[in-house]
Amino acid sequence: MAKTKELSKDVRDKIVDLHKVGMGYKTIAKQLGEKVTTFGAIIRKWKKHKRTVNIPRPGAPCKISPRGVAMIMGTVRNQPRTTREDPLNDLKAAGTIVTKKTIGNTLRSEGLKSCSARKVPLLKKAHIHARLKLANKHLNDSEDNWVKVLWSDETKMELFGINSTRRVWRRRNAAYDPKNTIPTVKHGGGNIMLWGCFSAKGTGQLHRIKGTMDGAMYCQILGENLLPSARALKMGRGWVFHYDNDPKYTAKGTKEWLKKKHIKVLEWPSQSPDLNPIENLWRELKVRVAEHHPRNLNDLEKICKEEWDKIPPEMCANLVANYKKRLTSVIATKQWFCHQVLSHVLQMGQILISLIKMQINL
Question: What is the pLDDT of the chain when averaged over all its residues?
Fold first, then answer.
């Protein structure tokens, strides 16, 4: 027998209303032009639950008990890198046999999802304290203070770098069709090193580093690019220069050069590339350059400089305007430690006070 179409809520409400005034099922069916077979179920549901809409169905019973779910969540909470195989074996040992798909569905229902682990610099305690010190010191700085900062950094640009991550739509067994492949050579086809800087007003000069850079070469790069960039960006007086804690940057000769030129330097913690907004511009530059498919290193350098100059000042201004969010994030991700320490100190203080009171009473 074919399945009949479910009556709408409006029709069900009319059936109940007509039933309330004393009409019989056949009379109601004739008036509404519907079959009488389902009227009884609708009226019984209304009498029992005072509603005409369908009650949510329970569905299939869960294969994993609440205790099993708690065990899975405990394992994942302690070891986020665990695979579905580990909780699967734990449940099997406890007498519950399920599939990996069920484990995945359970984790997703608890609000978790499988993601690629982010790669971040290795942070030691000294690095963490330095990052928190910077964040707390500058958290309440006005946006005008960050507008005065000229950010700098280096990056490596590979000839076949970002192209290798592109995806293609293809048919089965067509993986090696030339249309579906990205040509590569050993070692990425070569690369160039670039030094660049930017401020809230736009990008500064981009310089190709040839050879191994030491302190003397770094000072030369600054002399040829930093000061001209500051003038072109109209940084004015009191601007601050940012660079990381690479040894060649913090060498005695570099510090003396900066002091001689009366350039203020932003105090910076080690292992903190995520706090430097120029990293966002490097990513933007690599995406732009990849669209041109440079043929050789000279072509790569030319395209890099052209695209660097095309980065809109609005993007630079937006990175600086939202810089406070980076500092807030540093503090937020480490607050749990500070709260735990504070809680522990308060708890120990209460214990000591209790002991002192006990001794006084004795």
Answer: 82
Count Cβ atoms below 10 Å from residue 268 Cβ, excluding itself. Answer: 17
The CATH number given to whatever domain includes residue 295 is 3.30.420.10
Q: Quick one: pLDDT band at residue 346, thresholds 50, 70, 90?
A: very low
Residue 120, φ and ψ in degrees, nearest 5: -130, 160
- Which residues constitute the domain of residue 20? 9-49
| Spatial separation of the C-alpha atoms in residues 63 and 56, rounded to whole Å | 20
Same domain as 152, residue 84: no
**pLDDT digit string (tens) for 168-178?**
777 777 777 77
Q: How far apart are CA 320 and CA 252, in angstroms?
A: 30
Q: How many whole angstroms separate alpha carbon 336 and alpha carbon 127?
A: 17
What average pLDDT does range 154-158 have in this prediction? 92
pLDDT band of residue 182 (cuts 50, 70, 90) is: low
Return the pLDDT at 52.
80
> In what helix (H) or strand (E) does residue 360 lie, and over which residues does it extend?
helix 323-361
Distant-in-sequence, close-in-space partners of 204: CB < 8 Å, separation ≥ 6: 150, 196, 197, 198, 225, 226, 228, 229, 230, 232, 233
Together in a domain, 85 and 164: no
Q: The tokens of 104 are what?
A: 């995945």
Give the mean pLDDT of 278-305.
92
Q: State the Cα–Cα distance between residues 356 and 362, nearest whole angstrom.
A: 10
Number of H-type helices and E-type strands within the chain: 15, 5
Residue 301 forms part of a structural domain: yes
Full strand arrangement of the beta sheet holding 240-241:
202-209, 191-199, 149-158, 240-241, 264-265
Q: DSSP state, 110?
A: T
Asked whether residue 276 carries a pLDDT value surpassing 50, the answer given is yes
| Whether 314 contacts 352, CB under 8 Å | no
The residue type of 64 is I
Report the 10 Å Cβ neighbour count for 195. 22
Give residue for tokens 């203080």.
Answer: 349
Of the given ranges (22-31, 137-146, 257-266), which has the lowest mean pLDDT?
A: 22-31
Three-state DSSP class for residue 31: helix
Are 199 and 146 a contacting pair, CB within 8 Å? no
**Rounded Cα–Cα distance for residues 284 and 196 (Å):** 13
